[in-house]
Specification:
The protein folds into four domains: about 130 residues, Rossmann fold; about 160 residues, Rossmann fold (3-Layer(aba) Sandwich), CATH 3.40.50; about 80 residues, Orthogonal Bundle (Helicase, Ruva Protein, domain 3); about 40 residues, Arc Repressor Mutant, subunit A. It is built from 19 helices and 16 strands. Strands 2-1-3-4-5 form a five-stranded parallel β-sheet, sandwiched between helices. A hairpin with an 8-residue loop joins strand 11 and strand 12. The two termini are about 45 Å apart. About 0% of the residues have low confidence.
């Protein structure tokens, strides 16, 4: 047993006996003769447990308890008391002491009580560690990985989920934008209200207003009844506008008004309706470029881009492929009732060498196929689709097509260095081998190009 105990008792013989018993059990102990000395020790050091007499000269055990718990409400304290003061010891427990022991102390009862106290202390410690891990790296459904950019996504989601701010998620198709949006909703106070998603690119321009805001009967051909739009239907919840960059400029103006005024009007309606929704949007377009060419409203962009989350492509975080593939194997084992154990090394090598234009969504599809096609208990290369096995870049080779207009070699080198540093978590010693450089050479290149950690 390990743990630190501060013994407080004005009888030296009692302190000596307690130290001898507890040291023999593996505890680290320090004894002091009174409450004043105990408080002085606690200013300098931390102790897992305080074992204190109730009645002492100067600062009593009850006063010591009150002072200690005022500064550290989680501190564990066990009171020792004479038989006639049991009522005071019970009062001490009501005020936050863990337990009490009657004098003369029984060795077995002493050790059992302290053991129970440490069980509680260890549980509190484990809960703190778990809580911190959850704070630092939230497990977002199917957003799995250890890459620094993914960890940053975890951090931002955890930070902003409890707020009502609008969020704009950037990322290539298949990187998991809707999954992140759902995670924000599930971690927010709105989690018990609806989460409704709409793909702006999949709805014709003449119908998107009706989909968002609803319409009145007879407002257009085919409007045979009043319909509620998703802004009304998601009251109290979250609306996810996927591919917001595909929305036409006219509809963008109406969306901007809805966000600013917190109200909508159904198509063909005459009454403005208040709305209470959180808006999360996503795009794979560079909206700032779209603004410059007139394809996206700048004022709407700033309304949507209060919080920005950028999702990395799968090729940027290649080391996460193994964890993701393992997750999908388990997922589709459960869905199909199969028992595939994993992915054979040759197949995994091909997965690692592939460029994944469809990102995580494509990887999931490939693993689902592999689970279903596997003849044995491991996914083999022949269980993978041909676009993966035939297009995988051999280890050590680089896939690069020189564009017709040529390329700046210096710019290319700079980009490769940034990507290597990013993959290595901006640790030079880890990035240098990725570029077949020495530590000093890479350090020189970083200084030469003025590359700094973002």
């Amino acid at each position: 047993m390990t743990g630190s105990i501060l013994i407080v008792d004005d009888e030296k013989s009692q302190r000596d006996i307690l130290e001898a018993i507890l040291n023999r059990e593996g505890y680290k102990t320090l004894s002091v003769p009174g409450g004043r000395e105990a408080l002085a020790q606690l200013e300098e050091n931390e102790y897992d447990l305080i074992l204190t007499d109730l009645k002492m000269q100067g600062i009593s055990g009850m006063e010591l308890l009150a002072t200690v718990l005022f500064h550290n409400p989680e501190q564990s304290v066990i009171m020792m008391t004479a038989h006639g003061s049991v009522d005071s010891a019970v009062e001490a427990m009501a005020k936050g002491a863990f337990s009490y022991l009657e004098k003369p102390l029984d060795r077995d009862k002493l050790l059992i009580t302290i053991s129970k106290a440490f069980d509680q202390i260890n549980l509190q410690h484990e809960n703190k560690i778990l809580h911190k891990k959850l704070q630092d790296t939230i497990t977002l459904p199917q957003i799995i990985g250890d890459h620094p950019k993914i960890k940053e996504v975890y951090r931002i989601v955890n930070k902003i989920a409890p707020t009502a701010s609008t969020v704009l998620i950037y990322g290539e198709s298949g990187t998991g934008k809707e999954l992140v949006a759902r995670a924000i909703h599930e971690l927010s106070p709105r989690k018990n209200a609806p989460f409704l998603a709409i793909n702006c690119a999949a709805i014709p321009d003449n119908l998107i207003e009706s989909e968002l805001f609803g319409h009145e009967k007879g407002s257009f051909t085919g409007a045979i009844a009043r319909e509620t739009g998703i802004f009304e239907a998601a009251t109290g919840g979250t609306v996810f506008l996927d591919e917001i960059g595909e929305m036409n400029v006219s509809m963008q103006a109406k969306l901007l008004r809805a966000i600013q005024e917190r109200e909508i009007r159904r198509v063909g309606g005459k009454v403005n309706l208040p709305i209470d929704v959180r808006i999360i949007s996503a795009t794979n377009k560079d909206l700032e470029t779209e603004i410059k060419r007139g394809g996206f409203r700048e004022d709407l962009y700033y309304r949507l881009n209060v919080i920005r989350i950028s999702l990395p492509s799968l090729r940027e975080r290649g080391n996460d492929i193994v964890a993701l593939a393992d997750f999908f194997v388990r997922k589709y084992n459960a869905a199909s009732g199969l028992a595939v154990k994993g992915i054979a090394k040759p197949a995994l090598k091909q997965l690692m060498n592939y460029t994944w234009p469809g990102n995580v969504r494509q990887l999931e599809s490939v693993i689902e196929r592999g689970v279903l096609m596997a003849e044995g208990d491991m996914i083999q290369p022949e269980d993978l689709p041909t676009e993966v096995t035939q297009s995988s870049t051999p280890a050590g080779a680089i896939r690069f097509d020189l564009p017709p207009e040529g390329v700046s070699l210096e710019k290319l080198e700079r980009e490769l260095i940034i990507k290597a540093m990013d993959r290595a978590g901006w640790v030079i010693a880890k990035a240098a081998p990725l570029l077949d450089m020495s530590y000093k050479t890479l350090q020189y290149r970083l200084e030469k190009f003025g590359i700094e950690k973002p």
